[in-house]
Design goal:
alpha+beta; 8-stranded antiparallel sheet; 6-stranded mixed sheet; elongated
């Protein structure tokens, strides 16, 4: 049974809900965490708002101590749909206010529009369409609302200890047609203290999250000629989309330079242009001390070389999931220390130690300490599983597009389930705007996604005559 017409009648309600949710700035704010609000007031507000909406739509809802929540209907075995309400920081370069939820040319703009508020609410309204159509289900359908997906999954760790874990399900937080394999994800922090202060490099700072390609990098220099810096910046050849600007006056003793790159998701570093790396390439041209040049050389030879771990000798690849990726996501250099964080996505047939051993071998003797900040194991659901076949059938029947399963480097909540896959919302050929300025979801795609999710739920959780 197709619910296309019923979903079309809910169009304005869907648009309004997505816009209202985007307008809540649900960025993690650990400094203002409190009981019942472990990730800060913005995320708490988004969770409370979405659970209230679910209750108003006629579903059972539960808030799990502010770490997560769920909206549920039906009875029987559990089908999980795992979305998230937290968002990455907005960054710069927006043409509209990032939390305005402005509609321009049929698109809803705002941080979280595509990742992941829009598709999460599409799943909710897919459930609403089934409920309003009085279609009996043979499974419970539970929309799980995560709140820390972008920062380490403390939400899901807590939720899965407290609540029943669905065996099968999907995450509306990636791409169509369907993602059946997700690479392992390692976030590594490397730190080093300097025995003596650096004379010229006062500070280099770039990046806010490991899983974002830094689009800005600030540099503070001292003891160098201002005119030399001006001339060298004017003559340095940056690629398209990358540039630099001196931000203070000549009379000051320090020189502040802002480097601008292009942000992208950390799983696709080749889609961005890392401002930190280009800042270091420029700084190599300056008359720095040998100690300062050695730091730049190390960074550009190892973490800064290529996009696939070539510098560390970990450019692994396999057939199910493709190429390893490495993103230098956070960089902090002061006159007395260096700290950086890597986001590494490794193929599903490899293990954590395959990645760590070559890195540890290189940094041994260089004075670095290495800490594993987080680790998600690789995840793989066979293409011939009933879950994959049911979801792909829904996608093909609703869209008329070719159904196929593929692998990604991004990590979704699908990994939290024994049989979990990522399913939408980005359609083939659509631009990559997740974690970018001017993130948006088109209204046409929201409606189409809602229809696909409704059919997917029916294919898995209803009797055949209702599919």
């Amino acid at each position: 049974m197709r619910l296309d017409h019923q979903i079309e009648t809910m169009k304005e309600d869907i648009i309004s809900a997505i816009r209202d949710c985007i307008q809540i700035k649900s960025v993690k704010d650990a400094a203002h965490a409190a009981p019942g609000s472990p990730f800060g007031p913005g995320i708490q507000e988004a969770l409370d708002w979405t659970l209230k909406l679910g209750k108003e739509l006629g579903f059972e809802v539960k808030n799990v101590d502010g770490y997560a929540g769920h909206i549920e209907m039906g009875s029987g075995d559990l089908l999980g749909i795992l979305g998230h309400l937290d968002v990455v920081p907005e960054g710069d370069g927006w043409s509209v206010p990032p939390y305005s939820a402005a509609i321009v040319d049929g698109k809803i703009y705002g941080r979280g529009a595509l990742d992941d508020k829009g598709p999460t609410l599409a799943a909710l309204f897919a459930m609403k369409a089934i409920k309003d159509a009085n279609i009996p289900l043979n499974k419970r359908v539970r929309l799980i609302l995560g709140t820390d997906e972008e920062s380490g999954w403390a939400d899901m760790d807590y939720y899965l200890k407290k609540e029943e874990v669905p065996y099968i399900g999907f995450a509306p937080d990636a791409e169509f047609p369907l993602i059946h394999a997700e690479k392992g994800i390692l976030h590594l922090e490397l730190k080093k203290a300097f025995e003596a202060s650096l004379p010229h490099l006062v500070s280099i700072r770039g990046g806010e999250r490991a899983n974002i390609v830094p689009d800005l990098c600030g540099v503070i220099l001292r003891g160098l000629d201002h005119e030399l810096i001006v001339q060298s910046l004017n003559s340095f050849v940056f690629p398209e989309g990358v540039g630099a600007e001196i931000k203070n006056q000549k009379e000051t003793s320090e020189i502040i330079i802002s480097f601008k790159g292009i942000g992208a998701h950390g799983s696709l570093p080749e889609k961005g242009k890392n401002a930190v790396i280009f800042a270091m390439k420029y700084l190599q041209q300056l008359p720095l001390t040998s100690a300062e040049q050695q730091i730049l050389e190390f960074m550009l030879m190892y973490p800064g070389k290529g996009f696939f771990g070539e510098g560390f000798g970990i450019a692994f690849r396999d057939e199910p999931s493709g190429q390893l990726s490495l993103n230098l996501g956070i960089f902090e250099l002061a006159s007395d220390h260096l700290r950086f964080v890597l986001d590494i996505r490794y193929p599903v047939t490899y293990k954590q130690e395959d990645v760590l051993q070559p890195i540890e071998k290189i940094i041994r003797g260089e004075g670095f300490t290495l800490e594993i900040l987080s680790h998600q194991k690789a995840h793989h659901v066979p293409k011939d599983s009933e879950l994959v076949k049911s979801l792909l059938k829904a996608y093909a029947d609703v869209t008329g597009l070719e159904p196929y399963a593929f692998a990604i480097g991004g990590g979704t909540y699908a990994k939290a389930l024994p049989q979990g896959v990522a399913f939408g919302p980005v359609f083939p050929g659509e631009p990559e705007v997740i974690h970018c300025a001017d993130e948006y979801i088109s209204i046409n795609n929201v409606l189409l996604t809602t229809k696909v999710y409704a059919q997917a739920i029916l294919n898995i959780a209803s009797d055949p005559e209702h599919c």
